[in-house]
Every structure is written in C-alpha cells, then in structure tokens.
Amino acid sequence: MKFIVAFLLCLVVHSCLSEKVRYDGYKLYKFTPRTAEAVQALVELEQGDFSEYNFWSSVGPVGIPVQIMVPPYKISEVHHLAERVGIDAEVMMENVQDYIDAEERPATYDTGFGWERYHTLSEINEWLVNLRDTYPEVVTLIEVNATYEGRTILGVKVQYPTSNVSQSVFVESTIHAREWITSATTTYILNELLTSTNTTISELARKHVWYFFPVFNPDGFQFSHTTDRMWRKTRVPHSVLCIGADPNRNWDYHWGAAGTSNSPCTEIYRGPEPFSEPSCRVMSEYIDGIADQLLAYISFHSFSQLLLIPFGYTHEHIGNYDKIYQIGLKSAEALAQRFGTQYRVELFTKLYIQLLEAVLIGLKANMERQ
C-alpha cells in the first residue's frame, strides 16, 4: 500500500515538473443528447472522480450539444455509450494537439503587443504597466495581492475628467485559465477605449470609469502556458492527487448551488469552502471596495456563444432583467451581422433548471426499468 501511494505521489510530482502535456490522438466531439437518460449519462461523466473526459462546455438539457475532448483510449467506450443511451456524436477536431501546435506558432514575428497571437502572463502585465506609463493622466495601475503561488493580479482603471464615477464598469477575463481568447478580447477592448478615433467609442470611454482585469486567474493561466494548455482551475492543492478549484464557482454568494461539484478532481470543483482560493478572496475584497460605484460587471468566457444573464441560483429575474435582455438581443444581432456568429441570450438558471429536469426524468426512467 505504501508503495502504491509513493508511486502515485511520484506521478503527481512528475506531472507538475515535466514538459508540456500533449494531446496527441485526442478528439473533440460534439455530443447531442436525444433523451433524458443521455443527459444523465453525460452529467455522470462530467462529475465523476478522475474523469478522463475533458468537458469544453457544460452539459445542457436534451437537444443542447456539449463539447467533450476524448482521449484515444476512451474513443471506443464513448461511442458505445452514445449508441446505448441515445447521443448523436460528431467529431469537431480529429487531433487536438494539431490545433495546439498551430496556436503556438506566432502569426507574426513582431515582438510588440498585438492581437495576432496569444500573449503570456508577463507580456500582458508588461503591457498594462506600459499603458499606465503612456497615459498617466487617464490610466491607474491596480495591483491586488496575492495568489496561492504569490503572483499579483494586475488590472487598470481608466478614468477621464468627464467619467461618471457612479457609472463604473468592471471587466474581467481568464478566470478559467485555458480561455486565452477572453484576455485577448478584453485587452483589445481596453486598447480601443484608449486609442480609437471612432466618436461612439471615445464617448463611451469618457462617460464611464472602467476597471479591467485581463487575467483573473494568473496561477492557472501561467500553468496553461508552461505545462498544460487545457488547464482550467487554480493551482491550490485540495487532495493528494488533484490540484485546483474552479474559481468561477468559489465565491460566497450561494456557494455550492447547481452546476458545481464537491469532488476535488472534477473541473467544476467549487472548493472546500467559499473563498478557499486566495485569488477569489482578494478580488472579492477589492470589488467590495468599489461595489457602490458599479453600473455593470462583465465577465468574459469562451466557447459556448452564450450571453448569460444573472441569476445562477434561482429562476427569479434580476431587477433590470428586461433592459439587460434587450441589450443582449441587440448585442447578439450585432455579432451576427458583423461575424455571422449565432449567440443565444439566456438566463443562467434556465440552463441549470432544464438540465436538472432532464436528469430527474432520466433517473425516474431508470428506476421504473429496475
């Protein structure tokens, strides 16, 4: 027994210190459940301890696709499952590593900061410091200490003489470490607010006070660059074998509600208690200090093409739901016109309630068969 424990510990240490994790032969599937039993099976895969399936999007109700990365030695198994419970399977990426390799090849040899390649944590932080130095009368550097691994969470405050402090806007991204496109998006928006000659954008910049935190989870973000491109969580050890919690599910407001897990080895682990993750705790304290000034809080995530509206724990609507919903519809329409992308505007809990209903139906069907 001692040998087994020692061997497992060696594996953990090796995974932390070795070269980059590779995903050769891993396939990305789009699975669409046709039955409640199929939804239940996908939920069990997502929340199972030591699950070897990497969920790129959350499980939804019947008819809503979920994207899952499957290792080569699980492909046969998952096909049998799909046939048995009623899941339509479509391969979206034949070999995930090919896409990772292509992503790491810079599109330009320009060493400056731009939006034609992804940037590291140090490059993003250096760019934020340069903004402070370039626009000293407008940009203030914000340093929030510290993460589990001792990193500072850097952000900036943009405030013009005409900015309305009581209508401040808070923007954050990359709370899930692997969602690199979100920090690219928020830094692009920040740059536009400071440099655009478009009168609509410049008026918007000068109307509000803006807070930008491009990398909300720097420990995880750094690890996703140096070691594992698919890393999503923090880097806080929570068990002998599993590291990290989902920082998006670690806040104290209705902590542990639907869409979370109490297993440290799952991607949606909520942590042992609210604010167990230092990065969440220190950012919460900072946000509390400016909460009475905030008009809007915008959190960027990637992949699912959803514009989600609070709340995430109840079916009740937020006070200004109708206004936010109309803003969401106009935003989705603008995105469709510009890029051809199709975004859905949804209430957070609508997805979870539909999922819960589907799971309960599946459980009832199983019990009746037994």
UniProtKB/TrEMBL annotation:
GO terms for biological process: proteolysis. InterPro entries: CARBOXYPEPT_ZN_2, M14A-like_propep, M14A_act_pep, Peptidase_M14. Keywords: Carboxypeptidase, Disulfide bond, Hydrolase, Metal-binding, Metalloprotease, Protease, Signal, Zinc. Residues 117-370 form the Peptidase M14 domain. It comes from the Eukaryota. GO terms for cellular component: extracellular space. PROSITE patterns: CARBOXYPEPT_ZN_2, PEPTIDASE_M14. The keyword Disulfide bond applies. Its cofactor is Zn(2+). It holds the Pfam family Propep_M14. One of its GO terms (molecular function) is metallocarboxypeptidase activity. Residues 1-18 form the signal peptide. Belongs to the peptidase M14 family. This is Zinc carboxypeptidase A 1.
